[in-house]
């Protein structure tokens, strides 16, 4: 049973990696391919991306001539929930289920509880907090100059890059356990796959990348309930 599962897992890794590499090949950050960037730089891009979406939303919300843009939202066509563009749960919607549009009050959308409780900061607050902005160029264009559709497409590419890097870096331990790069959160005491959204929304100061076997992390950390990093053995 374990051998069957291991064979299926390896095949899945190979097929998934090839497909994802094709989807992210079109993006370069500061002239560097995503899959060639270190993990922490990819996470920095994620943080900048969320910041940029919040910034663009705040600019639109404070500009009278962009009143319609201030009502932009991201709809999950499966759950029928509406989100602010910068909401972490909007970013994890499968691209096929993600609809970006102006909010129509006549349609019965369900508001996301996460982003409705955390309203975006004002434009002035964002400018004060964004000392390093803009730091990254995506194919020679800064994030703020990209369309919201392209920003979300780039977000999908970041997640794919983290997945590809994890799959490439996996090794087999002496006991047959697969060893790879995991992210531990020193605040929640949980460990995650690198692409997990619980990692992306975590405070960067609590996000630590370690190369380990899952069983070696069990003494201190619990596996994340969202991405479920299992102990894979052959």
Give your account of this protein's structure.
By secondary structure, the chain is an alpha+beta fold. The chain has 2 domains: 24-162, no CATH class; 170-234, 3-Layer(aba) Sandwich (DNA Methylphosphotriester Repair Domain). It is 40% helix and 19% strand. The chain contains 8 helices and 13 strands. The strands form 4 sheets. Strands 9, 10, 11, 12 and 13 form a 5-stranded mixed beta sheet that branches. It has a 4-stranded mixed beta sheet with strand order 5-3-4-6. Helix 1 (2-24) packs antiparallel against helix 6 and helix 2 packs antiparallel against helix 6. The protein starts with a helix and ends in an 11-residue tail after the last strand. The model is unreliable at 1-17 (pLDDT under 50).
How would you sum up the global shape? globular
| Largest pleated sheet | 5 strands, mixed
What is the strand tally? Answer: 13
From the helix content, strand content and strand pairing, which structural class follows? Answer: alpha+beta
């Amino acid at each position: 049973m374990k051998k069957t599962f291991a064979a299926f897992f390896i095949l899945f890794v190979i097929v998934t990696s090839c497909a994802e590499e094709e989807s992210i090949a079109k993006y370069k950050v500061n002239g560097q391919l995503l899959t060639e960037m270190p993990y922490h730089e990819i996470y920095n891009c994620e943080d900048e991306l969320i910041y940029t979406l919040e910034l663009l939303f705040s600019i639109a919300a404070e500009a009278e001539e962009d009143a319609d843009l201030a009502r932009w939202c991201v709809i999950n066509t499966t759950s029928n929930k509406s989100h602010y563009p910068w909401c972490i749960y909007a970013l994890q919607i499968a691209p096929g289920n993600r609809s970006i549009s102006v909010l129509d009050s006549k349609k019965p959308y369900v508001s996301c509880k996460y982003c409705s409780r955390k309203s975006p900061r004002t434009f002035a607050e964002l400018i004060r907090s964004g000392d390093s902005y803009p730091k990254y160029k995506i194919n020679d264009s800064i994030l703020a100059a990209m369309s919201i559709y392209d920003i979300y497409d780039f977000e999908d590419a970041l997640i794919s890059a983290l997945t590809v890097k994890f799959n490439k870096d996996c090794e087999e331990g002496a006991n047959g356990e697969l060893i790879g790069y995991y992210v531990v959160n020193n605040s929640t005491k949980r460990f995650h796959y690198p692409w997990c959204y619980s990692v992306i929304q975590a405070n960067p100061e609590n996000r630590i990348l370690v190369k380990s076997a899952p069983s070696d992390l069990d003494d201190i950390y619990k596996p994340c309930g969202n991405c479920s990093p299992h102990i894979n053995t052959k």
